[in-house]
Each structure stands twice: as C-alpha cells, then as structure tokens.
Design goal:
The protein is α/β, with parallel strands linked by helices. The strands form two sheets. The chain has a six-stranded mixed beta sheet, sandwiched between helices. Strands 2-1-4-5 form a four-stranded antiparallel beta sheet, with helices on one face. The longest helix is centred in the C-terminal third of the chain and has 18 residues. The protein has nine helices and ten strands. The structure holds adenosine-5'-triphosphate. The site of adenosine-5'-triphosphate has 11 residues, from strand 2 and helix 1. InterPro entries: AAA+_ATPase, ABC_transporter-like_ATP-bd, ABC_transporter-like_CS, MetN_ABC_transporter-like, P-loop_NTPase.
C-alpha cells in the first residue's frame, strides 16, 4: 500500500538526519517507531506525511508515485493521510464536537470558516467521539478536558476524514497510564477493524511491544530494526538505543 525507497533528509546546510530509508507498509499494520532522542523519528514521520520536503527518495502510495505531489495529489493526500502532532492544535474555547468537525476543513472549507455545521455533521462528529470514548464530553469546551481527553479529541479529529494512514508523533506522551492504554487500544482496534495503517512513535518500548503489530527501531537516521512486534531482546535494544 505504501512504499518508501531510499528516503534521505538533509537539513541545510549539511545536517543529514535520515539516510537511505526503505520500507513497505501494508493496510492494517500498527507500526511503533522507537529510538533515542534525536535519532530522526519525528523527521521520518514528517517526511512520510509530507509535512517535510524530501531531499531524495521515492514515495509510492497505492501504485502511484506521490513523492512530489501536484495539487490534486495533495487534496487526495489530505484525505488519505492524517498527521497527528505531539501537541495537536485544538481550539480550547470550542466544544469537542466543533473541534472534531474542524478536521473536515478539506470537505467544507467555507462552513468551517463560518462555524456553521449541519445536524448530520454533528452526528458524524459525535460518532467519532464515541469511538474514542468521549461521547459524554462532546459539548464540553476542549479547554475543560484533561490532557488524555484532549488527545482523544485530536484523534477523533484526525479520523473524521477516514484516513487510510495515520501518522502520529508521540500520541501518548505525557498521559497517565489509563489514558495511554485507552488511546493505544483504540488505535489498535482501528487498524484491525478499518484496515487503517498507523505509524506512531512511542517513547516506551513496552508499549510498542504490547500494542503494535510491527516495530521499527531508528538509530542515527536509519531503520536498524524492523520486526513483527514482540518483546525485544537485550541485543535488539542495544542496537536501537546503544549502551543501556
Ligand atoms: N527543522 C529542522 N532544522 C534543522 N534540524 C532539524 C530540524 N528538525 C529536526 N532537526 C534535527 O534532526 C535531528 C533529529 O530530530 P528528530 O526530531 O527527528 O528526532 P527524534 O528522534 O524525533 O527526537 P525526540 O525523540 O527527541 O523527539 C536532530 O538533530 C534535530 O536537531
């Protein structure tokens, strides 16, 4: 479904952050990306989701080369790829339902500007909030929700366009164990039930081992480990993190 060949990224003037990365992602995979701070995980995710320009390499999505997307490809990418930043932008003064609807900006830009939404759109938005266990908080202002709840609103917002690929940078960083469990379980179910692919950085190895279907270990801008998810051996941890 998604193929990357020889992705390299150099930040000017000469900071080579990713080197010759290649991989293939199938529908329904939940890939956890682990690695030390500064190894290039965020840059990799930003490149995959076209948040960052590639220095070289090729990106093929469903047999189409989208390395340098034109306007139509960009529109399609906006629908099929969702990028969830570590600190996603949410409007704290608007309700959870309204925030989720803002994820529809591609489909109804004018309505999003005017702030009006139809009854059906509201129901759609509530459906997605229900999926992340937040239906009862739909009318609350986002600023009044906990960090974990806000993250779940951001996930619902990312999901409302029905993406095929969700790229998430540290979706559970700073969250308590219960919210962490809830969100990762959610993502896992979405992969299984909707055949969505998730590529997410996770700072704790045991979370990657428990929830993902595949683990990538990134070190110095390369994927040095690519295995079906299972408990890592000490050698594998050393390969990814160096001396531990
Ligand atoms: N916009 C940028 N301009 C220049 N250098 C950058 C830029 N973004 C990232 N880098 C550099 O790329 C390297 C990798 O950063 P990246 O954020 O991808 O690492 P990471 O593995 O996600 O780290 P962390 O776990 O701490 O978030 C770092 O040395 C960083 O300074």
């Amino acid at each position: 479904m998604l193929t990357v060949r020889n992705l390299s990224k150099v930040f000017p003037p000469d900071n080579q952050v990713l080197s010759q990365i290649s991989f293939q992602v199938d529908a329904g995979e939940f890939i956890a990306v682990i690695g030390s701070s500064g190894s290039g995980k965020t840059t990799l995710l930003r490149c995959i989701s076209h948040q960052e320009k590639w220095t070289s390499g090729q990106l093929i999505y469903n047999s189409i080369d989208i390395t340098k997307p034109g306007p139509w490809d960009r529109f399609k990418l906006g629908k099929d790829f969702a990028y969830l930043e570590e600190k996603p932008f949410l409007n704290r003064n608007k309700s959870a339902v309204k925030n989720v609807l803002m994820g529809r900006v591609y489909q109804a830009p004018l309505r999003m500007v005017t702030g009006l939404s139809s009854r059906n759109e509201k129901i759609d938005s509530m459906d997605f909030l229900e999926k992340v266990g937040l239906l009862d908080k739909g009318e609350k202002k986002v600023g009044q929700l906990s960090g974990g709840e806000q993250q779940r609103v951001a996930i619902a917002k990312a999901l409302i366009l029905g993406p095929k690929v969700l790229v998430a940078d540290e979706p559970v960083s700073g969250l308590d164990p219960k919210s962490t469990e809830y969100i990762l379980q959610d993502l896992k179910s979405l992969c299984k039930e909707r055949h969505m692919s998730v590529i997410a950085t996770l700072h704790k190895v045991e979370l990657a081992e428990r929830f993902a279907t595949r683990i990538w270990g990134v070190s110095e801008g390369r994927i040095v480990l690519d295995i079906p998810a299972r408990p890592l051996t000490l050698n594998e941890k050393m390969l990814v993190f160096g001396q531990i």
